[in-house]
Amino acid sequence: MEFFLLVGGAVALVLLWRRVDRLEAELRDLRAAAETLAVPQPQPQPQPQPDARPAATVRPPAMVVPRVARREPAPAVRTPAPESTLPESAGPEPTWPEATGPESAHKRFAFDFEELFGRQLPIWAGGITLAVAGFFLVRYAIDVGLLSPSVRVVMGLVFGLALIAGAEAAHHFRIRVADPRVPQALSGAGLAVLYASVFLAGTFYGLIGTGTAFVGLALVTAAAIGLSFRFGLPSAVLGLVGGFAAPALVGAEESNLPLLAFYLALVAGGLGQAARRQAGFAQGGGWSHGGWLGLAGIVGGLGWGLIMLIAQPSGPGDVVATGFYFVVLGALLPALALPDLRESRWLRLAAGGFASLQMAALLETSGYEPLSWGLYLLLGAAFAGLGWRNAGLREASAIAGGVGAWMLGFWYDPDPARFAMIAAAMALVFAGVPLVHLWRGQARGADVAALAAVPLAIFIAALWHFDALAGRGAWLFGAAGLMLAAMPALGACRIGPVAGWRGAVLQLSAVWTAYAAITRIAPTDSLAWIAGAAAAALAFGLPDRRWAARAALAVAFVWALWPLGWWLGAAAESLPGSPLLVGELPAARDAALYLLPGALAALVLGFREQGRRALAARMAAALPAIAAAHILFKQLFAIRDLAEFAALGLAERSAWEGLLLLAALILLRLPARWSPRPELAAALAGASLAHFAYYTGLIHNPLWSAQAVGPTPVANLLVVAYGTGAAAVVLLRRALILPDAAQRPFRVACDAALMLIISLFALSELRQAFAGSILTDPPVGQAEDLLRSLLGIVLAGGFLLWGARSGTRSWRIDSLVLMLVAVCKVFIYDTAGLEGLVRIASFLALGFSLIAIGWFYSRLLRVAPGAEGGGAAEGAAMPAPPPGPAAVPPGSSAAS
């Protein structure tokens, strides 16, 4: 199975390489020809017009690709092409004769079964088969015990050298061979056999020492690189792919992990060096002509790194070898073996991040020993050092810093002194170096991110482990945190106030790290006030660095989350009708310690901000401020059971709604420079009205809920409760600014709310005159019921009168609705229980009332002449009085 996978992968690799090689060759030739055409040719003397035409006929052959020029031996084609257009990377390839028959550039990319499976693949498959034959020859000798170990190894070395000698012979007689792939396949197979033989001698048999094995592997890798320049890139590909596959194909039972790590590092390094030389990175080369070999070496090496981690390195030598291997694969090779292109930035980031994760896994398996931490810091130092010249590695350094801080948090039961040393070293490597870049004006986004994240993450990990430190240890802990906070603070000072997201993240990190350090020193009860005071001080002291004040405000709001959530939960439980008792709320001390600091700090920031940000800050202050005020207010009445709620509930609700209304009125009356936008006043007035409508008007209305209103008629709590609701409607109508299209519907709704409040108040006062303080007892009598109908008629008349006087149609319409309800009640319900003269009197009174109201309505609201239809409009004016007799002509309808 391994054989077929290896063959398939090698075939795909060769095909892709040939395709990319041809594309870049044509692209380079076209660019060179275009540059040649762009250079103006010297003209020592003016030429006649007919003589200039042959020059135009000479230019097209310069655009011919060199491969096509080689296939056409006619001198007419070779002569006009300048020598500078030939690519330098062609190497010895022009000496090899091409296949017979001309073929165009389009035919090269066409699929030809006979070309692929008859001419191209057999040679490459033969080279791979020879390499695999060498591997299995050695393995067979091992299995059956034919020869001694030393003889087996020598046979493998001889076989590999013989294959390379055959490649050299094919290169020497290249005219007869007429195909450059023959020496390439032979050299690749010979290199793979040499890799396997040296690895077998040093790892499985122990015939040579570790140093000798290192030298042998290095020599084979150097030979692979050298042969790639003599025989072409495919030989290096085959040899180095075989080198990666050699440890798996040999199948040794016990491997030497340090030797394996060194061997794999050499293979990956050889790929990287071959990529640099073949693609010409120094001259701006890209991925083709072997530039992708470096990426292939990094990917293959990291894949072997996972296998090495699965083996769980245990001894110090294994840990050191594996750690150095990850440093090479994650930092050195991405810096040296990848071209300086845009996409290489993300490839370096991926390689560095993957190597950091593998190093973290090694740290975990080794038990967080100092040796493993040293290797991790070595990886970070490699990122930092190479990042001075290759800025693309700074993103990988930031990733490594974040992973390292995460591993600090996972460290099980660390020693405080050892933890402090490693944390300090990590801060210097992963945050100190970015701070130097920032100070020199050479920082990238990754440097700013690392400088902001690493100190905060390190201190959070320290808090996770050493939160219980007290006394002198706590003071030292806090001082260390302040030193960590100084790093992003210095960066924020250096970067300036106008720096976009960079200044924001540095200010956030500095404030949060410093606050976390202060928590180790200051008492717990004062921490929320410290955050709020810091927010206010930063808002006034550093007005240009607003994110610092916002960071402190966020901390103050975090302290407010717990009591605010408690308060919201208790308020939600009161929505179905359960009384909100004082014992179900946070204590007054909690409200003062945790809710008020955030609210006051947000108000301060609201005065320092401008526009929508100021409004957002004030809105954010509203919720914790209302919660704190409500909790403190509930302490005044201290209602603890249902009996106290029945006696004091209406008074408590009316007082709370009145306080909200008073706050809204104060906001509207403040001077313009101190007053916020009227939306906040409208929000408070709306909150007062909503509280009244839901709790007093619906859930705990005295008409159907046991709520004491006071024993005195008229002068009781009903006046306060319903008066507060009516005032909330009026103030909301004044404070809320709406578009023109919404003003009339909103005004109509406010008029309807006022009429409903007045009707409920009158009905409640009537009930209080018969029942006393508790309106639910005794039941409603016949006289009270008749008076309710009369009260409805009187209220309808009053609404009609007010609507006529103010010219408001909504009041007149609602008065008619109320009159209709009262008449229906009298005819359907009231008269059913009356008999005799009482029934006759009630009907007489109702009839005269209806006639009077109709006459009043028609008399006061008659449409004036010339204003037809005006009565249908909102706010229609009163019509003029009828003309006197002198102004009426005799015989007119008006005189009659």
Automatic annotation (TrEMBL):
Residues 41-51, 879-888 have a biased composition (Pro residues). Residues 74-83 have a biased composition (Low complexity). The chain crosses the membrane at residues 121-142, 154-173, 193-219, 256-275, 287-307, 319-339, 346-365, 418-436, 448-466, 472-492, 504-521, 527-544, 551-571, 591-608, 615-633, 645-668, 680-697, 717-736, 748-766, 786-804, 816-834, 840-857. The keyword Membrane applies. Coiled coil: none annotated. Keywords: Membrane, Transmembrane, Transmembrane helix. It comes from the Bacteria. Residues 37-56, 69-101, 870-896 are annotated as: Disordered. Pfam families: DUF2339. The keyword Membrane applies. This is DUF2339 domain-containing protein. It comes from Croceicoccus marinus.
